[in-house]
Each structure stands twice: as C-alpha cells, then as structure tokens.
C-alpha cells in the first residue's frame, strides 16, 4: 500500500492499461466483495436481494454488546442467569454453547459462546440479560442497524434462527461487518479465536471449534461469521487482512460448508490479486503546505478530516492523479479548521474522489503598514 506523507500541489500516479479483470465464477445466490479502507465494491452478484442471514445475525448481537462495553454500561465480568427459553435452544438441534437453566454465566463467556461456537442459547441469554426479553433486544438491534445505514435489514431475534421477519442483504451485512471491525477493535479479537472450552454444569467441559473454516487456513483471516439455514443454504461473512490491506466478503447460497470456505477464499484471493488500494491521505495526519497572502506565516498547513483511499484494478488504472485545488495564495486572517481547498483524485478526466482540506492553525494578518508595503512590493516586483 502506498503511503503519502505530504503533498505540495500536484502528485501524479500513472499506470499502463491492458484490459479489465475477469470476474470469478462462484455459483452462489448472492455475494459482495469490498475493500475495507476505500469501500470500493470489487465484486457483486445481486447484492440487494433479500436473504435470511442465519447466524450472521449474531454479528449485530455482538455489536450491541460491544457498544455497551465500550460505553462502560456493561462489564465482561457481569453475569446473567440462564432462563428456560435460553436453555431450550441447546436442546433443539441448533448450534449451542450448552448452558443450563439457572446457570450464572459471565458476559465474557456468553460472547465466546456466540462468536466461537455460534451458540443460539448464548444469544438468548445475553439478549434477555441486557433487555429483559429477546424481542426488546431485537428492537435495539434494529435501532443500531438504522444508525449504521442498513436500509434493507430487519432483525427479529438475536440468533438468526428461522423467522421470516429476520432478513438482510449481503450489502448490509458487509456494511455491518466493517462497522464491527472499525469501531470495536479490541473486542473484535474474539472473532479470530479458533476454539472455546465451556466448563458446563452437570458434565465434562466441552470444547468446540469455530465454524469459520478460513481461520484454519494460513491466509490472514481473522473473522467473521458463518450461517446456515435449510432455506438459504450456507453463508459466510469473511475478512482477510494482508499487510495493511483488508477485504470483506459476504456471500450466501453455498451448497456445503466446505464449498463456502473454498469459494470465499477464491473470491478474497481474486480481490487481492487483481486490485490494489492506495492511501492518498490519512485523517489529521497527512499535511499539505499552502501559500498565504498577507499572513504572519507564509505557509499554512492543511489536513483532511477523513481518510482517503483509492482502489483500482491492477490492469485498468490509467492516468490516476491527485492534486490540491484552492484559490491562492490564501488571504489572511485564516482560522483553524477553516475550509481552504479540496483534495481531488481523477482517473483520466473523470473525478473519482473529492475531499475538503482544512487549516490546521490560526494565522493572523500582518499589520496595516507591513501589508501596504507587501502589496506595493508585489505590484512592482511580483513577489509577495
């Protein structure tokens, strides 16, 4: 990944165009592949058709819990009492942590039961512990979904088991997955754990492996969540990080667990092989030097308030360039955080990104007599 620490006026990147890349054949119902940093969609197949997300629903369940932990409204050491409703989920043939009625289980263990073993019983226990009922917890999930921008999603329960009112799209699930990784990096570490041992009541400890087959391959995978419903077949939200670049894949309609692992790896590898992401500007870090007019400083340092990444196909990028657009020199006084220009990225003659740049400091205007002298000097010599 290219890192740009500073730009003055113009920086140009030029690539040679050969031909566009060929999309992979996956034989799935729906899928999407996005670049984590740039949000560029690298692959999509009917990404907005409605699906039953199955256990990928549990991503949102953990987001709600992580949010409370982050806000110190909940502790990993807090314990919830297991109800009969939660316990019965371990008796119905679904994925389970195998908790028992009246067990007092910590939030930490319940999260591991949800994330690593995909326990539906753990989902209900944590939902009831936080909201009183699973239905009320689902309301919290839907509020968070709206906040994230998931426009085609509705959650009806905390686990993703059969319910026609529990639906989403691969586009929304990819958006949710990015939100999870970006906002809860410490707690997200649980998603790469390969197994969990639960010291259950009334029996020997039970160890279960993570159902995400990508974690057992040496490819840089550190999440996210599998899913299965008979009506939907097999699904997977997955992510791989190589060096500093991360891709997120979500797909549904695989015919088997082994197929979803194999074809998800194929899609992710295809993305890394055929595209590249370039860091153009880092929020509050990349500095641009712009000239001032009648200021006590001749240079004002500027920055962006957002990261700017560009993802391009390795064989399709041509005349990719970026430059600063501003009316300058910039007349003093200049206020801190004042918008003073734009960072623009073009591919050939097409604008593909535009981001405001802001002053990082206050710059006062020079006194009246000095400004008159400077103006006269400029008129005579053309030198500010």
SSE pattern, N- to C-terminal: EEEEHEHEHHHHHEEEEEHEEEEEEEEH
Helix coverage percent = 25-40%
User: Rg from C-alpha positions?
Assistant: 26 Å
CATH architecture of the largest domain: 3-Layer(aba) Sandwich
| CATH topology call of the largest domain | Beta-lactamase
Shape: globular
SSE class: alpha+beta
Strand content: 25-35%
Biggest sheet descriptor: 8 strands, mixed
Which ranges are low-confidence, i.e. pLDDT below 50, for 5 or more consecutive residues?
Answer: 1-19
Query: Please, how many helices?
Result: 9
* Number of structural domains: 2
The CATH class label of the largest domain is Alpha Beta
User: CATH superfamily assignment of the largest domain?
Assistant: DD-peptidase/beta-lactamase superfamily
* Average residue pLDDT: 90
Account of the 3D structure:
The chain is built from 9 helices and 19 strands. The strands form 5 sheets. Strands 1, 2, 13, 14, 16, 17, 18 and 19 form an 8-stranded mixed β-sheet that branches. Helix content is 27%, strand content 29%. The radius of gyration is 26 Å and the shape is globular. The protein is an alpha+beta fold and 384 residues long. It folds into 2 domains: 246 residues, 3-Layer(aba) Sandwich (Beta-lactamase); 100 residues, D-Ala-D-Ala carboxypeptidase, C-terminal domain (Peptidoglycan synthesis regulatory factor (PBP3), Domain 2, Sandwich), CATH 2.60.410.10.
């Amino acid at each position: 990944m290219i890192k740009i620490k500073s730009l003055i006026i113009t920086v140009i990147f030029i690539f040679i165009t050969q031909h566009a890349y060929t999309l992979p054949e996956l034989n799935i119902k729906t899928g999407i592949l996005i670049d984590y940093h740039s949000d560029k969609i690298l692959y999509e197949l009917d990404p907005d058709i409605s699906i039953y997300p199955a256990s990928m629903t549990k991503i949102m369940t953990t987001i709600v819990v992580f949010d409370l932990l982050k806000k110190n409204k909940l502790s990993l050491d807090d314990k919830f009492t297991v109800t009969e409703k939660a316990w019965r989920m371990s008796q119905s043939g679904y994925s389970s942590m195998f908790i028992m009625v009246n067990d007092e289980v910590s939030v930490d263990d319940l999260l591991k039961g949800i994330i690593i073993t995909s326990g539906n019983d753990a989902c209900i226990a944590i939902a009831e512990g936080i909201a009183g009922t699973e239905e009320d917890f689902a309301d919290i999930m839907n509020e968070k979904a709206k906040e994230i921008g998931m426009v085609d999603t509705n959650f009806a329960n905390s686990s993703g088991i059969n319910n026609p009112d529990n639906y989403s799209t691969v586009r929304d699930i990819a958006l949710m997955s990015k939100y999870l990784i970006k906002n809860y990096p410490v707690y997200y570490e649980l998603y790469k754990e390969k197994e969990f041992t639960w010291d259950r009541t009334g029996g020997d400890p039970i160890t279960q492996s993570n159902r995400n087959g990508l974690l057992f391959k040496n490819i840089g995978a550190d999440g996210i969540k599998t899913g299965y419903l008979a009506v939907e077949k097999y699904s997977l939200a997955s992510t791989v990080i190589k060096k500093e670049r991360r891709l997120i894949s979500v797909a549904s309609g695989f015919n088997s667990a082994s197929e979803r692992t194999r074809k998800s790896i194929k899609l992710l590898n295809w993305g890394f092989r055929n595209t590249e992401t370039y860091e153009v500007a880092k929020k509050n870090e990349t500095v641009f030097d712009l000239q001032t007019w009648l200021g006590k400083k001749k240079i004002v340092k500027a920055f962006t308030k957002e990261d700017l990444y560009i993802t391009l196909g390795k064989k399709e990028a041509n005349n990719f360039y970026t430059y600063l657009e501003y009316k300058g020199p910039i007349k003093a006084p200049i206020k801190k955080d004042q918008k003073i220009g734009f960072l623009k990225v073009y591919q050939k003659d097409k604008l593909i990104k535009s981001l405001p740049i802001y002053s990082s400091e206050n710059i006062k205007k020079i006194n009246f007599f000095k400004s008159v002298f400077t103006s006269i000097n400029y008129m005579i010599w053309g030198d500010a």
